[in-house]
Design brief:
This protein has helices at 17-30, 44-58, 62-65, 118-143, 150-154, 177-182, 227-234, 262-267, 318-334, 338-346, and strands at 7-9, 33-37, 77-80, 94-100, 165-171, 191-196, 202-207, 214-217, 247-248, 256-260, 276-280, 291-298, 305-306, 316-317. By secondary structure, the protein is of the alpha+beta class. An eight-stranded mixed β-sheet has the order 1-2-10-7-12-5-4-3. Strands 6-11-8-9 form a four-stranded antiparallel β-sheet, covered by helices on one side. Helix 1 packs across helix 4 (118-143), helix 2 packs across helix 4 and helix 9 packs across helix 10 (338-346). The longest helix is centred in the middle third of the chain and has 26 residues, at 118-143.
């Protein structure tokens, strides 16, 4: 059955810090997703301005955006219709731009037509979101018995290898045919983003009003298992888990949807839950509209050691954890042999894709 996604107000953050922290930890333990509202930064206006900037970037000709093509090894750059979900076997109908802080002087788009301040505005937003993610992670650090700044040090952007990534996304408008098929009963329904879990520590997702479709499947209890993903893929009628089992997360500009990633689930010895989620196609009445979202993937530096306080799992570097999680995910969803699995891994980004 669906689990309500808690909304947590960050109003008067300093004065209400203990109350807010308790609500966040409770949501992480019992749901895995929560929605932040009333935050000071990034404000609703900041978020609206970034959506406007993102829309203008994706409206540029492909030959301009293609000057910064996606480079998998660096997890940075622009791509279109290139990310194949193992749970669907097809590429998400979208384009995206991935931006890492330490590459801002070398591989962020610049000198863009009609967007002279693109880099500066993205940098400002990136800083705001990173600071918010560190504030949130301070609660997790204390809950796990570590110093408040434990995760801040692990994600320090001053180092030249910090893997945290800001991703701008634009899902293509649907012509009504795909949307209608999504509601049919014959064959697996097409998805804007197939069912998946995130492999990072924490994902902060920004949705634009009118871009509904994000749905969460509750019930995942251990980070190395994909039982709920199997349910999502193999249920009756080709639809996987029934619609009644998925919890919709409505899109609202200004709100921030936060979900636990597999790495934090492991780091907490499965105390905090990383859930399977997807983005369904729009209903026929919603077709013709693109869908904009933005995500900040909070990922530690590659050589940071990931191991929980009870040492339930063996220690592993953050980089090795991501690679191991990808292998398990591809094996679980596709049953691939070693050769095809290796080929698929090479085509996948080093961070779970956002919704």
């Amino acid at each position: 059955m669906p689990r309500p996604i808690p909304k947590i107000s960050l109003r008067d953050f300093a004065a209400r810090r203990a109350e807010i922290g308790a609500q966040i930890i409770d949501a992480a333990e019992n749901v895995g997703f929560f929605i932040l509202v009333d935050q000071e930064r990034p404000s609703k206006q900041d978020i609206e301005e970034m959506f406007e900037l993102s829309t203008k970037f994706f409206a540029l000709p492909d030959e301009i955006k293609g000057q910064w093509p996606f480079v998998r090894e660096n997890n940075t750059g622009w791509e279109r219709d290139a990310q194949v979900r193992p749970s669907t076997g097809v590429a998400d109908p979208k384009e995206s731009l991935q931006l890492q802080w330490f590459r801002r002087n070398t591989y962020w788009p610049h000198d863009l037509p009609n967007l002279p301040d693109f880099e500066a505005r993205v940098a400002r937003f990136h800083t705001q979101v990173h600071e918010l993610s560190m504030d949130i992670l301070s609660f997790f650090a204390v809950a796990l018995g570590w110093p408040e700044g434990y995760f801040r040090e692990a994600h320090d952007l001053d180092h030249g290898d910090a893997l945290s990534t800001l991703r701008l996304l634009r899902y293509h408008a649907q012509d009504g045919v795909g949307a209608a098929k999504a509601t049919s009963t014959s064959g697996p329904p097409p998805m804007r983003a197939g069912a998946h879990a995130d492999f990072d520590v924490l994902t902060l997702l920004f949705q634009q009003t009118g871009g509904d479709g994000l749905e969460v499947l509750p019930g995942r209890e251990a980070h190395g298992t994909f039982d709920t993903l199997h349910s999502a893929m193999s249920g009756s009628g080709g639809k996987g888990a029934t619609d009644a089992e998925w919890t919709p997360v409505p899109a609202q500009t200004g709100e921030i949807t936060v979900n636990i990633g597999d790495m934090l689930m492991s780091w907490s010895d499965d105390r905090f839950k990383s859930l399977i989620h997807r983005v369904r196609m729009p209903n026929p009445s919603e077709s013709g509209k693109p869908r904009n979202s933005m995500a900040y993937f909070t990922q530690p530096r590659p050589q940071v050691i990931v191991q929980g306080p009870t040492r339930k799992y063996a220690p592993m570097t953050a980089q090795d954890y991501i690679l191991s999680a990808m292998r398990k995910y591809y094996k679980a969803t596709q049953g691939q042999n070693e050769e095809s699995q290796t080929k698929a891994e090479k085509a996948a980004p080093l961070v779970a894709a956002a919704a």
